[in-house]
Design a protein that fits this description.
The strands form 7 sheets. The chain has a 5-stranded antiparallel β-sheet with strand order 1-3-28-27-26, with no helix packed on it. A 5-stranded mixed β-sheet has the order 2-25-24-23-22, with no helix packed on it. A 4-stranded antiparallel β-sheet has the order 4-5-6-7, with no helix packed on it. It contains 2 helices and 28 strands. The two termini are 13 Å apart. The N terminus is likely disordered. It is mainly β. It is 3% helix and 38% strand. It holds the Pfam family MRJP. This is Major royal jelly family protein.
Length: 370
């Protein structure tokens, strides 16, 4: 059994009663326990990643002036800038070489940590030269390379949100939640393509979204439009799944089609499949058996869906007020635990007429899957 991060506090019991929302959801077990792994004070964590030896990493997007650093390793509940302090020191003049606004951290099958920086602080637009992915070898903590995204891949109003890796075929797949698109990166030669940018599968939907009983609206009363966000790759690398955050439709496409540069936009769009209707999710992750885990924003929960039986109701893995906007997911290396960040996004000023209703500390949780 691989090492896992020690738990810091007494477990919080979550009673998983059936949901009362319109989409029926079954309970995974009669009771699940959420365990607190880390507290971050006023640092709002979104992404989480777990390495093979149990090391855990989180990131803090630059959505406020409070951000002290962008990427950190969690050790005994404390956070340390990673991979070094210099890269985590904000300097607008050095956006190409320092972190600007990191949204996601992901560990690939080679045990390399990838840091995705959409470089759009405060959602005010991509800083020129700042959009990038940074690859770190966790055996040495050395940065191996930086893959940069130009304005053709990361336009000014884009927000590269999450990424999944196929090391065997040497490809990466990203979502853009700012404008709506899928980005495909050939890791062997650095070639990048922006796909499905005009396809409805990558776009937000018009239905209202409520989180913890609060309907999301921005200052002018409009509903926010957050496009392709959650992303997951099946264990064989055959299917890529994605979902808009403000939407209820889960889509997928064969990765072979996404990699096929000869397909026209219309031909590729025709091969996209609608898998299921779900509650609006933020993070998504797929386990080694091909089960899809999604955060459920409306129910402060995490659910499990079998893509091979999409008509079956999702099953609740964990639910409770601790999961206040469950954001990103990551499995422990042995697959026995699922890590969950709670980012409280619905309490941010943009959804509360300029008033910040978030409460500190921000926390990282995990739930046993055994």
């Amino acid at each position: 059994m691989k090492a896992v991060l020690p738990v810091l506090a007494v477990a919080c019991v979550v009673h998983c009663a059936p949901t009362t929302t319109s989409q029926t959801t079954n309970t995974e077990h009669s009771e699940k326990k959420l365990e607190m792994v880390g507290e971050f004070g006023d640092q709002q964590a979104t992404g989480v990643a777990a390495a093979k030896n149990g090391r855990v990493f989180v990131n803090f997007p630059r959505w406020s002036d409070k951000v002290r650093y962008s990427v950190a390793e969690v050790t005994s509940g404390k956070v340390t800038p990673f991979p070094d302090e210099v890269r985590n020191t904000w300097d607008p003049a050095s956006a190409a070489d320092r972190f600007v606004c990191v949204q996601s951290v992901v560990v690939d099958s080679a045990d390399h940590l990838w840091i995705l920086d959409p470089a759009s602080p405060m959602f005010q637009g991509v800083v020129p030269g700042g959009a990038k992915m940074v690859e770190v070898d966790l055996a040495t903590n050395a940065v191996l390379r930086t893959i940069r995204f130009g304005a053709d891949i990361a336009p000014t109003k884009s927000y590269l949100n999450d990424v999944r890796f196929d090391r065997e075929r040497r490809f990466a797949y990203l979502t853009d939640s700012g404008l709506g698109a899928i980005v495909v990166v050939d890791l062997a030669n650095g070639t990048q393509r922006r796909l499905l940018a005009e396809h409805p599968s990558t776009k937000a939907e018009k239905e209202p979204v409520s989180v913890a009983g609060q309907t999301l609206v921005v200052a002018n009363g409009d509903r926010p439009q957050v496009h392709a966000d959650g992303i997951a790759l099946d264990p064989t690398g055959t299917w890529l799944y994605w979902h808009a955050l403000t939407g209820r439709s889960l889509y997928r496409a064969k990765t072979a089609d996404l990699r096929d540069a000869s397909l026209t936009p219309d031909a590729l769009g025709a091969r996209v499949e609608l898998v299921a209707k779900t509650h609006p999710p933020d993070g998504m992750e797929m386990d080694a058996s091909g089960q899809l885990f999604l955060t459920d924003l409306e129910d402060s929960a995490v659910v499990r869906l079998d893509p091979n039986a999409p008509a079956a109701a999702p099953r609740i893995v964990a639910r409770g007020p601790q999961l206040d906007w469950p954001d990103s997911l990551a499995f422990s290396p042995d697959g026995n635990y699922l890590y969950i960040t709670a980012s409280q996004i619905e309490h941010a000023p943009r959804f509360n007429q300029g008033v910040d209703r978030r409460t500190e500390p921000y926390r990282l949780w995990r739930v046993s899957l055994k």
